[in-house]
Amino acid sequence: MDFLRPSTLDEALAMKAEFPDAVPIAGGTDVMVELNFDVRRPPALLDLGLVTELSGWTRENGHVRLGATVPYTRIVTELGDVLPGLAMAARTVGSPQIRNRGTVGGNLGSASPAGDAHPPLVAVGADIEVASTRGSRTVPAREFFTAPKKSALEPDELIVAIQVPEAAGPQQFAKVGTRNAMVIAVCSFAVTLDVAGKGVGTGIGSAGPTPLRALEAERFAAAELPWGSGEPLQENIVRAFGELVGAAARPIDDVRGTAAYRRHALSVLARRTLGWAWRSVPQEVAK
Amino acid sequence: MTTTTQQPLITNVTGGVGDSPMRPDGAQKTRGEFAYSSDLWADDMLWGATLRSPHPYARVKGLDITEALKLPGVHAVLTHEDVPDNIYGLEHPDQPVLAVDIVRYQGEPVAIVAADHPETARRAADRIVVDYEVLTPVTDAEAAMRPDAPVLHPAHEGGNIVRHAPIRFGEENPVADVVVTGEYTVGMQDQAFLGPESGLAVPAEDGGVDLYIATQWLHADQRQLTKALAMPEDKVRLHLAGVGGAFGAREDLSMQVHACLLALHTRKPVKIVYGREESFFGHVHRHPALMRYEHGATRDGDLVYVKAEIILDGGAYASTTAAVTGNAATLGAGPYRVPNVRIDGYGVYTNNPPCGAMRGFGAVQACFAYESQMDKLAAALDMDPVDLRIRNAAERGTVMPTGQVIDSPAPVAELLELVRAKPLPAIPTGPRDLRELPGGVSNTTHGEGVVRGVGYGVGIKNVGFSEGFDDYSTARVRLEVIAGEPVVSVHTAAAEVGQGLVTLKAQIARTELGVQRVQIQPSNTFVGSAGSSSASRQSYVTGGAVRAACEEVRAGVLELAAARGFAATGLAGGKVVSATNEVLADLVDVLGDEVVERTVEWRHRPTAPLDPVTGQGFAHVQYAFAAHRAVVDVDVELGLVRVVELACAQDVGRAMNPDAVLGQIQGGSAQGLGLAVMEEIQVVDGVVRNPSFTDYLIPTVLDMPPMTIDVLERADPHAPYGLRGVGEPPTLSSTPAIAAAIRAATGLALSRVPVRPEHIVGA
Ligand SMILES: Cc1cc2nc3c(=O)[nH]c(=O)nc-3n(C[C@H](O)[C@H](O)[C@H](O)COP(=O)(O)OP(=O)(O)OC[C@H]3O[C@@H](n4cnc5c(N)ncnc54)[C@H](O)[C@@H]3O)c2cc1C
């Protein structure tokens, strides 16, 4: 197996164009598991570790441009204020060791329906910046995932960055697993509130072939939330929101849980996270 | 030597029995420097790989190794035709080293390969073509017992029933005021040790083989190896390599015969290391159980009878199923005084993964059922569940359902009182750290839906091998002067599997011989058998053997002293001393150039087989007891559980190494917690669905709560130092205590462990 070590993005893209079968490796927390389990035997690994263009983040025009190889630990410690939803999701990933290595670029690259970074990206409407020697393009996170472990990424493309809108209000993320740490999601849910724009975003993880959006739940909540009133949420609104989220899921029975449980749990998570988000809407804005 | 300096004795020997000296492997293990069996290395070695059946049940109609042999780098591809004597087994020889014409479980070894690189070996194994005729697997243990079920081992008498262990005690049809019944199931737990099966076989010039191996019992491996390889004992030598956990999973053979065959065939050292996924197919698991219980009691809460049927799914091969069944049956009524008992334990062949030894060994499954029943009975009687247990608690003198009288302390009631008396952890108010809540950092609740529950459990476990087994250990102890200092050397074949036996052997030698410096020789088959590192038995049996050998060495030294004119009666602080503890001479002077070495084979008092019809007999050498109180927080809307606290009280007879005792109680309780809420190998139609640590979950530090532990030391007069085996009892009672606490929080019946979120929310 060859080990390719580009030191610039251009070099990396050239290598990817020349060897489309080369598997990019960022933190390696998915790639190495697959190699160990003999799930794949790639002819080459393309190490992104030296490509500095991928390893930082900047704030520009109300977005954070998050480099593909920024590890979760940095997201938790550096971006908790501007990207609270993503930072909360990052906090739930694996163990400290995994968070030190694992990246959002890798999460997207794997495109597992259970990837924890996906629901907050879908909820907030992030864009994924991908590039090849042919040029670059952005793919909305909401369109990036095409099937379990399949994405819109072309064989010669690399994920360069994720453009995540800065939080326009409270965000929440919650995930159910059968252990209290280091667990793959049985199902997960992200919600974002855009307080000024009176908008609600949702993302469902691990309860469908791809991360999903609960569109009807979003529309319902946007219309029914008592924006600007400073009022607490009515129980019937929270319940209806939960039910709409549960209904939007397309879960299956598998080794981690049943479809029925996932739907049920998503409703509960949706109710709770909406409640927490609403309660932390800044009072000045609300009134 | 005639001058005696009359000086008072200063015992400057530390780290004896009752102390907690540092374990020699401790720092290495925490630093990641300890050499495990998977780290073994020899120049010029080959790597072995195993081709396994993908089917739980199939006829093997053809096997073609041609393409595998063609791969460059491959040195050997072996099948059953290359095995001198193909059938082996720990208790019953019923398992092929390599499958012949039938495979009986998913993962059964079919062929083995040696190549110059592990990847080459795996690729070669992939090139072997096996023609399978897939058969319908027998996967329901109860159905497998029926007369019309396909017979999986025609040579075995009794159809698919490996063993029926009946217990008949007291009246046949007792009548009770209050009766509760229940049906309980236990899922298939895995030992989940971290160091996968691995070893290195090195062919020797004498035509024999040296096997460096992580195992629990070198001599049992050797016995099975000499048979399979058709070689004499002196040609098959075993050396214990670094063991990364065992918990029963290393009692049966895994890659031992395979590595030796390949080494003998290629005349090169051969290393085999299983990967994590392969490991799930490389060892036996805990028997899943289906248990039907009926308890009868007087209105006042005195137990009148226990009736039970316990069906243990042994999977494809017998392994230790017979002994596990015996344990489940003989201990199936629990640590209680029960005048009338009727239990039928069954161990059954199916096409599920083979099951055998795991910490608790049959007593775990039964404990979940009888403790669940005690709670149910308490509810039916409107009694406090701890009061009910205490009222019926076994004690010294209690007659067990086997007719055996408990003839040493059995402080069951006291253990329960101790855990009950612990102050309950406060229910926090105000904002909480996510890590304290069900779901942990996954942020599923900030307190919503969280209900607290408290539950209790107490269990009984036998220590040592039972039912008439000739259970012994061998120790060779040597005392000599090295560089002007007395030094003891202890040699046994006992497997250090992480439990701390290496430390303990040195402690015993220090105490018995009054010598500070003790060298522990590597464990190997150059000394007699130590028996298995299982059944909570090594402190008792190998500890007993080391003590006995030390006593003989001491006698030898005292003879030497007498010959030199000292009327010495003991050894202490590196001196020979008189009956009044006066120092008579330096040990160094008494020994001079003499080496005093003694080898002792030591047995505990014999046990007896059970009567095959009534199940009566003096089956167990020692009983051990632990009790738990579990406090849990359950998110009743999501079905997520956080165990808030575990309190444990255990009688250990004598805390030989108090720190190690606490470690065993913590670890055993954690394994019981795993069975209560998460650990299960999921098997569907004979196929394992979660052979990885991604989906076979074991508790993390955020799942295992702080513990409060009470250690009682009520000496067993029959045991060395009065000690009682420690390793297994805490694994028994933590599971039912946690299940009971979840029931208390949810009001649900919950008759199955592990309890899954679906069971709690009913989705
Ligand atoms: C013990 C453990 C626990 C885990 N727990 C969680 C968890 O709780 N939640 C969760 O979501 N995941 C979890 N994971 C999975 C994994 O950590 C995440 O998916 C992580 O985000 C992967 O990032 P990485 O940088 O390590 O990716 P890598 O393993 O390096 O790569 C993953 C995939 O993405 C591709 N890739 C990487 N970077 C790029 C790029 N820039 N452009 C194109 N393709 C790219 C790779 O080729 C590969 O296919 C866990 C893994 C382990 C081993």
UniProtKB/TrEMBL annotation, chain A:
Pfam families: CO_deh_flav_C, FAD_binding_5
InterPro entries linked to this entry: CO_DH_flav_C, CO_DH_flav_C_dom_sf, Diverse_Substr_Oxidored, FAD-bd_PCMH, FAD-bd_PCMH-like_sf, FAD-bd_PCMH_sub1, FAD-bd_PCMH_sub2, Mopterin_DH_FAD-bd
Gene3D superfamilies xrefs: 3.30.465.10, CO dehydrogenase flavoprotein, C-terminal domain, Uridine Diphospho-n-acetylenolpyruvylglucosamine Reductase, domain 2
Keywords annotated in UniProt: FAD, Flavoprotein, Oxidoreductase
Domain FAD-binding PCMH-type, chain residue ranges per copy: 1-169
Organism domain of life: Bacteria
The protein's name: CO/xanthine dehydrogenase FAD-binding subunit
UniProt source species: Actinophytocola algeriensis
Lineage: Bacteria, Bacillati, Actinomycetota, Actinomycetes, Pseudonocardiales
Automatic annotation (TrEMBL), chain B:
UniProt feature, compositional bias: Polar residues: 1-14
Region span, Disordered: 1-29
Domain named Aldehyde oxidase/xanthine dehydrogenase a/b hammerhead: residues: 31-136
GO molecular function: iron ion binding; oxidoreductase activity
Domain of life from the UniProt record: Bacteria
InterPro entries noted in UniProt: Ald_Oxase/Xan_DH_a/b, Ald_Oxase/Xan_DH_a/b_sf, Ald_Oxase/xanthine_DH-like, AldOxase/xan_DH_MoCoBD1, AldOxase/xan_DH_MoCoBD2, AldOxase/xan_DH_Mopterin-bd_sf, Xanthine_dehydrogenase_dsu
Transmembrane segments: none
Gene3D superfamilies: Aldehyde oxidase/xanthine dehydrogenase, a/b hammerhead, Aldehyde oxidase/xanthine dehydrogenase, molybdopterin binding domain
Pfam families given in the database record: Ald_Xan_dh_C, MoCoBD_1, MoCoBD_2
Name used for this protein in its record: Xanthine dehydrogenase D subunit
